[in-house]
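Quick illustration, no need to memorize.
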Amino acid sequence: MLKQILSEMYIDPDLLAELSEEQKQILFFKMREEQIRRWKEREAAMERTESLPVKSRPKKENGKSVHWKLGADKEVWVWVMGEHHLDKPYDVLCDEIVAERARLKTEQEAEELRKTQSEEFTNSLKTKSRCLDLQANDQGTQNTCRKAAEKEGLGSIPAEEEKTQKKESTKKKDEEINQIDEERTKQIYKSWKEDSEWQASLRKSKAADEKRRSLAKQAREDYKRLSLGAQRGQGSAGIQSVPQKPKRPPLPPKPQFLNPQIPHRNQGVMRTTSSSAQEDTIRWFKEEQLPLRAGYQKTSDTIAPWFHGILTLKKANELLLSTGRPGSFLIRVSEKIKGYALSYLSEEGCKHFLIDASADAYSFLGVDQLQHATLEDLVDYHKEEPITSLGRELLLYPCGQQEQPPDYLELFE
């Protein structure tokens, strides 16, 4: 499985969704290792080509070439962000970005305020000039009216009209000032809201980065601890005591077709034609896994009760949920890639772990990487040892066949 992923440098998105965070971290690490290995091979091939005489070198189509920058040790100069002593920490960079954005926003607000003030000043000048013109034009009219009013004994009326006009002009100016203040307040609130949302997203990204780092660190520590325990024959020395297992219920009834050497097809069941990918998986199982007795019990020629054929993720979940017992499990042939998947029912729901079948051994992809000679050895080991240190998954109750014929029949035909 791992060999196929590294050769293609691609993993199906549905298959990737089945992996836990620890498995994703280590798979990413393995793919980066493979990229570096290929790069080194290509560099070595280029060096051998450059050491040849000029006439015997293969000609390039465009005549272009790449020259790497060399360091003081005459090696290719490489800079990894965050590892150099002069590199700034992540928090400092974020603070600088925030400060720069705040400075640009302040400058923008100051520029907008300056423009607003200049426009207000210009408008006030225009308004004053218009008022002066109107006053100059109306002065003669007012004098004439005043004289006429004095003659008729109504000299107090123009004064009252003048007061009313002054009140109306003052009221209009106050309304304009209030409107400008409201618009400015709305702009300040809008900028504050955008800044607070950006700060919240920054805090969430920091928390996610910290969680990923802690998971990767925990995975490395678990792998180191379990590897040392396996080498000394004390795999459970560094693990806390496992709680007492509940009483094992009776196994489900075994199917009638347990001897794969003489399979019988139920004539009443119609089977659909396999796709090309499914045919490749069946061919891989027959050619590479049957000689290793994959799916068999150690002491007999019968199929283990936890072994299933090519099942989809949805079907595996349905089988486990139908048992209703946390600790139930099954091992199925993966429909996406040449390998196996262990489906497990926990208190939180169904979990799925990919099993790598490369190098004639079996191990979980990216969890503990302890290799087992057979699938049954892997199951027996994890009846006592949890699959992950955080989940504490113990394989307690095998989930057997619930329909006839068994779903693994096509693998042994």
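The first helix runs from residue 2 to 8.
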